[in-house]
Design a protein that fits this description.
about 110 residues; elongated
Length: about 110
């Protein structure tokens, strides 16, 4: 699909945002199959990001049925925490231990 080149027109009139969104949505919708075909071509040449996107888009990676959870739970942040060897669950700490790390004596402090 080729798009006709249009001359840049700058207008001071307010834009019809809904019309613009509808036009863009139609262009994307009508190009979706061609875009996926190009992504597949790119993935076949070793472009890992294109392959990963396609696999995630159709539920191949991660396999949703096997995980038993939504893929949104596997976020970039979670992956980073795992690779850095950091806890993936919230860490709780009791106040006496926290006071020790802050260099405070928890016995000498009076409650506020």
């Amino acid at each position: 699909m080729k798009f006709e080149s249009t001359e840049l027109r700058i207008s001071t009139a307010p834009a019809d945002v809904e019309r613009v969104r509808k036009n863009i949505r139609n262009i994307v919708w009508n190009s979706a199959e061609a875009v996926v075909a190009k992504l597949i071509e790119s993935a076949m040449t070793g472009q890992v990001a294109a392959a990963k996107y396609l696999f995630e888009m159709v539920g191949v990676n991660p396999v949703i049925e096997e995980l038993g959870r939504e893929p949104a739970e596997e976020s970039f942040a979670l992956t980073l925490l795992k690779r850095l060897g950091l806890p993936t669950e919230p860490v709780t700490c009791d106040e006496d231990l926290a006071a020790q790390y802050r260099g405070e004596d928890s016995d000498s402090q009076e409650p506020a």
